[in-house]
TrEMBL record:
Highest taxon above the source species: Bacteria
PROSITE patterns assigned to the protein according to its UniProt record, in alphabetical order: HTH_CROC1 (PS50943)
Source species taxonomy: Bacteria, Bacillati, Actinomycetota, Actinomycetes, Streptosporangiales
SUPFAM superfamilies in the record: lambda repressor-like DNA-binding domains (SSF47413)
Name the UniProt record assigns to this protein: HTH cro/C1-type domain-containing protein
Residue span, HTH cro/C1-type domain: 20-72
SMART domains recorded: HTH_XRE
Organism of this sequence: Actinomadura meridiana
Amino acid sequence: MLGAMAGDVDRERVAKYAVARRGSLGLTQEQLAERAGVTVKTVYNLESGERWPQARTRSAVEDALRWHPGDLARIGEGLEPQDGRDHVAPELAELNAYFAELRTDPGDKRRMALAFFRALYGEPDGR
């Protein structure tokens, strides 16, 4: 049942998932709270398993953690988040492949990419 009430969910499991997800995104509790528009105490309560947040708060936290609506309830019911992939993973994988190729390319492609980045960001200090 996805309309889980506080007594129906495994808050400890939700806490573990939320802490792990926040860590994988490189966020502090303060940063997550800011992104979600909630207090740090709210994040602490979720991550400690102390309290089950209201629906609006769950939605804001899910969004800040890049999860789908209802994922906290799904996790609390023993299921996995709806879509375990990060929303930006395909783009990051494509960029990683491109940069890996550039590292080994001694030719024009590398020179063009460097010229682009220099134009975009300027010359690095000390070079």
